[in-house]
Amino acid sequence: GQQVMQIPQYQHVQEGEDFTTYCNSSTTLSNIQWYKQRPGGHPVFLIQLVKSGEVKKQKRLTFQFGEAKKNSSLHITATQTTDVGTYFCAGPPGYALNFGKGTSLLVTP
Amino acid sequence: DTEVTQTPKHLVMGMTNKKSLKCEQHMGHRAMYWYKQKAKKPPELMFVYSYEKLSINESVPSRFSPECPNSSLLNLHLHALQPEDSALYLCASSQDQFRADRDGYTFGSGTRLTVV
Questions:
Q1: pLDDT value at residue B96
Q2: In what order do the strands lie in the sheet with A71-76?
């Protein structure tokens, strides 16, 4: 199936610092979804992006979908310890979600 | 009800055992999925059911056998598993397999399987 590449694999920040994870596809995506998985937990849906150039915000989280619909990013402003977890982007290959490798975020108080 | 319920939460089984994982949703979703997740890896798609029919089998070994008794239930029957099959097995559901869904996939909390 279609692959989405995600970087970085890990990110360790001090509380209050910003964080960004990037997702890239070699082909155009009809839409992209973002999920968060806390340690020991299950993936939880955050948002779906559909339109070219779309930007959506959820409190301190900002999600962007590239103009060519081949890349996406998640930016967290002023991280908190509650932001700890793995953030996955997931693209539809046409029949079901394929997850990127994820970015594991560690926040030090 | 906006949950996907999976049972059991933990399962230890021997390589000669037969066991089943269960998944239930009452959100009226017409697509249900089984994913396998190893430690520090992303979920990997195993099976997709759409309108109670098997839509996708991602070349999963026959020792894993899915079943969809009705629109709310999804089972995964396990037989003669190997230790390398130990993983977190996640069930998910969505409104429709092919339509972009603003609510995304709803995942259950998973069954943590250990094969000994």
A1: 86
A2: A4-7, A19-25, A71-76, A61-65, A55-58
| Tokens 């190893």 sit on residue | B38
The confidence score (pLDDT) of residue A2 equals: 53
Q: What is the pLDDT of residues A50-106, one digit of tens each?
A: 999 999 999 999 999 999 999 999 999 999 999 999 999 998 756 678 899 999 999
Alpha-carbon span B5 to B12, nearest angstrom: 19
Chain B contacts of A100, Cβ < 8 Å? 42
Q: Which of B43, B55, B103 sits opposite A45 (nearest CB)?
A: B103
How far A43 CA sits from the closest chain B CA (Å)?
Answer: 6
Which pLDDT value is given to residue B18? 97
CB of B56 within 8 Å of any CB in chain A? yes
Instruction: Note the pLDDT of residue A93.
Output: 58
- Parts of chain B with a pLDDT under 50: none
What secondary structure, in 3-state letters, does B63-104 show? Answer: CEEEEEEECCEEEEEEECCCHHHCEEEEEEEECCCCCCCCCC
* Residue-wise burial string across B65-75, b where 16 or more C-beta atoms lie within 10 A, e elsewhere: ebebeebbebb
Which residues, in sequence order, are CB contacts of B54 under 8 Å at separation 6+?
Answer: B47, B48, B66, B68
